[in-house]
Amino acid sequence: MTFFTVFFQMLALLIMIGAGYFVTKKGMLDAHTNNQMSDLIVNIFNPMLVLASAANSVGQISLAAMKLAGIIAVGMFLAFIIAGMVLSPLFEKDRELRKIFQLMFVFSNVGFIGIPVISSIFGAEYVVYVSEFMLVYTLVFYTYGIALMDGKFSKDSLRAMVNPGTIAGLLAMAVILFEIQLPEFLNTAVTYLGNVTSPMALVAVGFALADSDIKKVFCQPRLYLFSVVKLLVLPLLLLPLLRFAVGTSDLLSVCMVMFGMPVGNMPLILGNQRGLDVTACSAAIILSTVLCVLTVPVLLLFTG
Questions:
Q1: How far is 128 from 173, CA to CA, in rounded Å?
Q2: What's the rounded Cα separation, in Å, for the pair 245 and 98?
Q3: How is residue 278 annotated by DSSP?
Q4: C-alpha span between 304 and 175 (Å, rounded)
Q5: Cα(136)–Cα(139) distance, rounded to whole angstroms?
Q6: What pLDDT digit, counting tens, does each position of 202-227 carry?
Q7: Beta carbons within 8 Å of 76's beta carbon, 6+ residues apart
Q8: What's the pLDDT tens digit per position in 103-152?
Q9: What is the DSSP code (8-state) at residue 144?
Q10: Residues 6 or more apart whose Cβ sits within 8 Å of residue 277
Q11: Reduced to 3 states, what is the DSSP secondary structure of residue 263?
Q12: What is the C-alpha to C-alpha distance for residues 172 and 217, in angstroms, rounded to an integer?
């Protein structure tokens, strides 16, 4: 897969982000509608895409590959937790705000952006691998993420692990494990609902871009440095270990893309809930999402 092949796939996603920016600036999309769209994506369309991916991957993806993807997902989050602890002081001196940068290193947008990227570059059947990263993400967020911000574990946060995304991920694992064939009418419905995910998620990113202060997003040198470290340096440092674990296969490329995903929304949400200044986090989410149009092709170029 050449650099330009991947680049033009990513450019198509950027155009969809641009569509969200355009309709927001024209007043056709407001905050209330965007919130409703986000709820639909998180609670219905994303879970349906994960389930549809599993249903369409029966017999095509081995159980050994699924198991290996899960192990790699655990390893990725452990590596990012360590990186966040070591590197976050370089980007933020304030102890409390430094926690936001630690979370930004760890919690990438593996679902909202990862699913459209994987589906666009590799095909919808590979989204089933993303579901494993999303399951590990959920576990790490509601344990490490909450504990980092609050200084303790919370039973309420553990209960929040039961959500549509987690349930869909577990169902996807069951479909692959037991080679369950969904009835054609159900498979069609789930697939069509899942297909809504990519364009709607990218339009939502366009809304965030239109609703932000462009100068604060694109005029902060430390955020460019942070984005380069997160999107390129860390994934490339982990590539030799990934090659050792996987060898050469589509799984290697999928995992590399997962390593290079932009900052997700959960650090922003946690920071807002705790009353912290999340200006830098909001800007980093948008900046890293736009920059991944360039960095993902670079990562796949190194992956071969």
A1: 8
A2: 32
A3: -
A4: 31
A5: 5
A6: 888 888 888 888 887 888 899 999 99
A7: 133, 136, 238, 255, 258, 259
A8: 999 999 888 788 888 888 888 778 888 888 988 888 888 788 888 887 76
A9: I
A10: 97, 271
A11: strand
A12: 37
